[in-house]
Amino acid sequence: MKRVLSGIQPSGKLTLGNYIGAIKNFVALQHTHDCYFMAVDMHAITVPQEPEALKEQSESVIALYIAAGIDPAKATIFLQSHVHQHAELGWLLTTLTYMGELERMTQFKDKSTGKESVGAGLFTYPSLMAADILLYNADLVPVGDDQKQHLELTRDLAQRFNQRYGDTFTLPEPYMPKVGARIMSLDDASKKMSKSSPNQGSFITLLDPPDVVRKKISRAVTDSGREVKYDPQHKPEVSNLLSIYAQCSDLTIAEIELMYDGQGYGPFKKELAERVVAVLEPLQQRYHEIRESGEIYNILRQGAGRAIEQAEKTLRVTKEKMGFLVL
Ligand code: AQP
């Protein structure tokens, strides 16, 4: 069975972008693959986090995984910081990473531009992400479009290590959804929907109440036309809403275009909001049940146990190959 690994940062409330681009795929993959899904709290601290908020958000990510349908009996669900081997392999791989490679990362440029001070962790974070993946010898990594570049670096590092020290790491492949790999912001379709955006209206969180979802979608920026048509180049805002609609229904984009032919944006946005609410409401109900059950800590303990077993094996071999004295 092929192995899958992926994670989400507990750096804010998870968005519909995280759901469509990541979690939905996680749920599907658990039936056919050996899956490891984590909340990457060590990545979250590459930008400042309030300690209480970090704790709450970490627990929330895990509860959302389960509420969305990830079964802890099938997939290994854990917190990155519970498996110290990530930090250790992260350091080993940082020493193999070139500055020029990190400087080319567009996510670093996006997140650091205009900031007065930028932590070194934000810069070296792709090496830690490589460690996350290589520790488990993952074959497939479900990622949104924005993470593809980091995955390419992971492959380069794996190859570099294998060439220098002998075959050790599996080269992971990206697993990208066909539609929804990049859900864009509701206020600016040139930016991806991001949970840490300062504008609350730019994203829909998975825990937004129905009325908030309706309001955010009704206020979503469109264009001055009235044609519901998928054309990312000329109609990026409407195309983004169409992608969300398709992902929250069983309909194809072509079918949705046909449904709203000649009707303008009003009815389209109204029904889109209802489709999103219909996905979120049952998820939110399960989320609250899980939080109240107090089961999260047990699930995390179990998940960490399984993850550590695998991670420690890889780390040991890696250190031996690099010439560390391993006891
Ligand atoms: N807008 C998006 N469309 C499709 N997929 C997305 N993902 C994130 N945003 C979108 C996918 O979700 C997974 C987890 O992402 P992450 O939280 O670890 O990091 P991120 O990509 O930096 O997500 P955010 O929401 O933008 O977080 P912040 O604002 O904290 O940086 C990844 O697979 C990602 O592709």
From TrEMBL:
Motif ('HIGH' region): 10-18
Subcellular location field: Cytoplasm
PROSITE patterns recorded: AA_TRNA_LIGASE_I (PS00178)
E.C. number(s) listed in UniProt: 6.1.1.2
Keyword Cytoplasm attributed: yes
Primary residence: cytoplasm
Extent of motif 'KMSKS' region: 192-196
GO molecular function terms noted in the UniProt entry: tryptophan-tRNA ligase activity
Enzyme's top EC category: ligase
Binding site for L-tryptophan: D132
HAMAP family (alphabetical): Trp_tRNA_synth_B (MF_00140_B)
Subunit structure: Homodimer.
Protein name (Swiss-Prot/TrEMBL): Tryptophan--tRNA ligase
UniProt source species: Paenibacillus agricola
Gene that encodes the chain: trpS
